[in-house]
Amino acid sequence: MKIDSLLGALGDPTRLRIMRLLAHMELAVGELALVLGQSQPRVSRHVRILCDAGLAERHREGAWVFLRSAIRENGAPPLGAAAARLLSVGERDDAAFAARCAEDRRHLTAIRASRQEAAESYFSRHATDWDTLRSLHAADEPVEAALRSVLGQASLGELLDIGTGTGRMAELFAPQAARTVALDNNPEMLRIARARLQHLPAERIELVPGDFTALPFADQSFDTVLFHQVLHYAQDPALPLAEAARVARPGARLAIVDFAAHDREELRSRHAHARLGFADEQMLALLTDAGFSAGMPITLPGSPLTVKVWTGQRLNVPAHALEKTA
After folding, report:
1. Does residue 145 belong to any structural domain of this protein?
2. Are strands 248-259 and 222-228 parallel, antiparallel or unpaired?
3. 316 has a pLDDT exceeding 60
4. Which of 120, 149, 151, 239 is most buried (most C-beta within 10 Å)?
5. Contact at 8 Å (CB) between 278 and 291?
6. What is the C-alpha separation between 291 and 248, in angstroms, rounded?
7. Burial of 74 by CB count in 10 Å (0-12 exposed, 13-18 middle, 19+ buried)?
8. What digits encode the pLDDT tens for the residues 29-53?
């Protein structure tokens, strides 16, 4: 980040408005255009300048491109943190700018409502399949209670929710996390999660498109990693677990919620499950090979499917050993 490009990027009223909007929530380029009352090509040009200066980041989800702020008041680099504080102070002390920002944020209500409507439409289209699957196993409440019990009430630090789906786990544990990253490979599910999570502070939640066999994060980035009903989609579960180990810091906690081994073949054809659950011995071997010490599993019987909660803790291994497990 360079001071001249940073100051040049901030030297425009529209770009100042964009940065204050992104401080509150991630927005698609089209959504920004609606709030700002400007054409999408014009907004895209402003976005490009902000991204080139390191003030904002763009990421693609299918046909959509979403923007998020790349700076936080207490984050890094220091120049970015200083810019974030300047923008905050500017809104507080400049009455005209504050009024403009407040008017922009009022438009976010319509954006949130539109996202929620899209989420409800998705669930109404798929309600039968969801209800059929959920009827086969334990209710959500005892599963979530079990997961809470193994993770405890202490801080979860930097939390990674792999295969976030509807965003329920990210929402449930975000209050305990310094920052939550929700990852999914399905653009439509990410839009569902975004609707669910849009009430959370923008600086504490990030939605990321990505494959769980090639996580787009640096080594040793997270203190807690979750797989909630997602590992059964893996053709080779060892690959996402190796990736989880790579991005987990030494001592980081891992929690996996999935089905015990079963014989419901229709889940392969109707719901694209690659694995029909996991036996405890199989999961113990997977965790050990990935570099986790395994905890005692929790069993939540259902009819006919049993849900299991497996846990692990990342072993304190030297940096060169991480490459061997990845």
Report:
1. yes
2. parallel
3. yes
4. 151
5. no
6. 10
7. exposed
8. 889 999 999 999 999 999 999 999 9
**Calpha distance 242→248 (Å, rounded):** 10
Residue 116 lies in a domain: no
Long-range contacts of 259-262 (CB under 8 A, 24+ apart): 259/137, 259/229, 259/232, 259/305, 259/306, 259/307, 259/308, 260/299, 260/305, 260/306, 260/307, 260/308, 262/304, 262/305, 262/306
Q: How far apart are CA 315 and CA 92, in angstroms?
A: 46
Total number of residues shown for the chain: 326
The answer to whether residue 131 sits within a structural domain is: no
Asked whether the CA dihedral 102, 104, 106, 108 is positive or negative, the reply is negative
* Tokens coding 172: 């449930």
Say whether both 56 and 145 belong to one domain: no
This prediction's pTM: 0.74
- Domain with 95 in it: what CATH number? 1.10.10.10
As a whole-number percent, the residues of the chain with pLDDT over 90 amount to 63
Half-sphere exposure of 59 (CA within 13 A, CB side): 17
Q: Could you report the per-residue pLDDT of 210-264, keeping only the tens digit for each?
A: 999 999 999 999 999 999 999 998 888 999 999 999 999 999 999 999 999 998 8
- Which residues, 6+ apart, have CB-to-CB distance to 267 below 8 Å? 133, 232, 273, 276
What is the percent of the chain with per-residue pLDDT over 70, rounded to a whole number?
A: 90
Asked, for residue 125, whether it belongs to a domain, the answer is no
Q: 186 by DSSP, 3-state: which?
A: coil
Domain of residue 47 covers 3-109
Show Cβ contacts of residue 134 under 8 Å, excluding neighbours closer than 6 positions: 140
Q: What is the per-residue pLDDT for 140? A: 83
Question: Tokens for 296?
Answer: 């005692």
* Letter string b/e over residues 121-137, b meaning 16 or more CB atoms within 10 A of that residue's CB: ebeeeeeeeeeebeebb
Tokens 């403009």: give the residue: 100
